[in-house]
Design goal:
Elements lengths: L4 E13 L1 H11 L4 E2 L5 E9 L4 H7 L4 E10 L8 E9 L2 E9 L1 H8 L10 H13 L3 E14 L6 E11 L12 E2 L6 E7 L5 H9 L9 H17 L1
Antiparallel strand pairs: 1-6, 1-10, 2-7, 3-4, 3-7, 4-5, 5-6, 7-8, 8-9, 8-10
Length: about 240
């Protein structure tokens, strides 16, 4: 797994948007931010967890510190296509993300203890430590959504809007399809604001005028709760 590694540190704020709020926001962002070069992109992420969902359950309790280990792709992955193994931690509202580029086959070997992350440095050690600490991490939930990302020219502000967030708990790979069960109404979307410092006043003003308020929405957390409700109904 000796490929480039990436480190990110930032604050993240989430909002659930109606169709009208998204249209308002898209209009108001003109002149402030630009859509990145990728346009609308489908993203798929496999979350690894213990068989009893230890990581997801802990995250849903909103502790001051939480972590997730996951595998992400941009679009359906072809044979030996690039994916990203990520470690995401949140401590006192600050998000830290480390990731290494690799392949699905290498990641399967990593979680089967056939090999470690061979890229040098702290990120490789952290990924291996988390795998060894939880011992029996397996693919738990696949989250999929269609994203538009905005960036602020000459600034550190980044904003993403995720449409049709969905999930599945079968065919937990990144090469089969982008199908899944919806987590929001078809017209809903999730806004994430990501910044290294504070939110600019012009963006706070836009959110206020659009009546766009913070939400603690977690895609994987909501998917877990939805799946637990389905299982409970099946047992009745």
């Amino acid at each position: 797994m000796s490929k480039p590694i990436i480190t990110m540190k930032r604050y993240e704020m989430k909002y659930v948007l109606t169709e009208e709020q998204y249209e308002f926001l898209a209009r108001e962002l003109k002149g402030h931010m630009k859509v990145d070069q990728y346009g609308l992109t489908s993203i798929a992420t496999i979350y690894y967890d213990t068989p009893d969902y230890r990581l997801i359950r802990a995250s849903n309790e909103k502790p001051p510190f939480k972590e997730k280990i996951r595998l992400r792709s941009y679009g359906i992955v072809k044979e030996n296509g690039e994916v990203f193994l990520e470690l995401k931690r949140k401590a006192n509202k600050v998000v830290y993300k480390r990731r290494v580029a690799t392949t699905e086959d290498n990641v399967n070997k990593f979680f089967s203890y056939e090999e470690d992350v061979t890229a040098d440095g702290q990120i490789a050690r952290e990924l291996t430590y988390v795998r060894n600490y939880y011992k029996n991490l397996v693919p738990a939930i696949l989250i999929i959504y269609d994203r538009i990302a905005y960036y602020e020219p000459n600034g550190d502000l980044r904003l993403t809007i995720d449409f049709n967030p969905r999930y599945r708990t079968n065919e937990l790979n990144l090469h089969t399809s982008m199908e899944g069960k919806s987590l929001l109404p078809s017209s809903g979307a999730i806004l994430e604001i990501k910044v290294q410092q504070s939110m600019p006043l012009w963006l706070s003003d836009i959110l206020s005028r659009g009546k766009i308020y913070k939400s603690s929405f977690s895609k994987v957390g909501r998917a877990y709760l939805d799946q637990m409700q389905i299982l409970m109904k099946e047992r009745v």
